[in-house]
């Protein structure tokens, strides 16, 4: 039996699936709330401030804790919708229902209200964020997630807008999904086979925005670590303005990347939302079931384990199902290859905020049939001191952003004492951290969006965050950086030469380490943020990639290309298991041997700034992919040392792949390396690295 409401026929809806689904010649709306006493469906014409219809959902349509209603006569492509939820308002119990607020559907697959990036919103519009309806029809052809072995990845962390927004990018539609497609040839030239996209869930760039007093420029939430909804791609990153453009453009981008052998990992944020604490807005979850979706104190305030005002209640059964539904949706409908989870330790906390030894959400992700084969990467800490590095509940699947690797490489690079032993661990996949898990558990990085760029790492001793207008409080103070003798930009040719050499040294350390390397967008061309190590609010050239830097720093760019090609050429650098330092398969020498200036005499003392080792190519991929021998000598002392070279068989010789101590940093393309004249020893100049190939 149907009822007439305004001009629409309504009927009892299906409780599943959640969200709004075109169905039976109408639209099925379904939303869960345990504590709401009533629910009203609110309909808008796209772009209009005032609703054109409000439909109370009859109590008889409720199925358990689910309000479900079907509506015929709607053109779902032209509407936006939300809900008014009524119920008790008892903040001390975490109940804050407000029927005057219109809330977004947590399952909405597209979002309206803020579809143009950075466009000033109408302050008189109380309902800034609206849910939209899509049909998910897209021609994927034979596209599927690529499932490249994780140890074979070269991950490129990038910001969708910042990658092409600068005028030098020459993009048709700067700062969009579409513009990235125009640059796929660049990613291929560089050798990238995986991009990690910073948040693309719909977020509000105006969250906590402010005006710079000196220029009047708006400081926005540029990074996007404040989701409004989890299922909808960021509309402001679309080139088109038609409803659903962002959906098809992101799918088209992923399809094009896959066609070029490039995987897509999404940086996802499930630890908090843009609703903030008790002073923040009601956008969605607060108004639907505040006490279920957030971890609250006994007196109804918000635990702030995320550092942003609230903490998502990830291991509540209902919230856990929402997150799993979301991940399944992105894999099934967008064909993404994996996820990097921001502040992932939040996802190990129970409903009271206490750490769990066996978090059900993480176990469910690993056991989920749709997520099987999907890469899962944790940022293994949160903002309240929970630190899981090397101890994140992995269940044989999870990898981790390795902050210890980052700090060790940085310290050794700048010449700190007492780092040689730690370097040997870092470059062999951090076996003490990941015993039993293998080097595929470590995502190795030296720079990421949060912190200095690589050029700034070798140009500044101190952060320069004055442009954030936060009294210098934002950003880490201990960056293990070294300015090479002058703070900031300089015309001193010797300083600039040293900086370029240090960048090349850092890259070699990263790409010859066992594990999974991640590089930061723009480091390959010497991108600078002018010393800003927390540019989260800088939607301007500080954060954008200036493509003119390729020619300005062409030596760095060419060095990057050659080093990435070298790693991809040599499987002995990409073992999925720990090297043992033994000749366990009778190959004539161990899989890994450590050296110092003298053969077989590594110096791991507290005063050492040198390290050398040889990888036995016969053990490449456990002997399944025989390779050349590779010898690497690292000297971070300011004076040169002559290193004795391991002996090769009579039919083999050492060839020079890279020598950063030579003018402009000697580098050769894989398989074109010239034979080394002196096969017994080599001079490794101060603050330089030599990489040799035995063949």
Automatic annotation (TrEMBL):
Protein name in UniProt: Glycogen debranching protein GlgX
PANTHER family per record: GLYCOGEN DEBRANCHING ENZYME
Similarity section: Belongs to the glycosyl hydrolase 13 family.
Keyword Cell membrane attached: no
GO biological process: glycogen catabolic process
One Pfam family of this chain: Alpha-amylase
NCBIfam families: glgX_debranch (TIGR02100)
Annotated keywords: Glycosidase, Hydrolase, Transit peptide
SMART domains for this protein: Aamy
Taxonomic superkingdom: Bacteria
SUPFAM superfamilies: (Trans)glycosidases (SSF51445), E set domains (SSF81296), Glycosyl hydrolase domain (SSF51011)
CDD domains for this protein: AmyAc_Glg_debranch (cd11326), E_set_GDE_N (cd11234)
Any coiled-coil regions, as ranges: none
InterPro entries reported in the protein's UniProt record: GH (IPR017853), GH13_cat_dom (IPR006047), Glyco_hydro_13_N (IPR004193), Glyco_hydro_b (IPR013780), Glycogen_debranch_GlgX (IPR011837), Ig-like_fold (IPR013783), Ig_E-set (IPR014756), ISOA1-3-like_C (IPR048650)
Molecular function GO terms recorded: amylo-alpha-1,6-glucosidase activity; isoamylase activity
UniProt domain Glycosyl hydrolase family 13 catalytic: residue ranges: 157-567
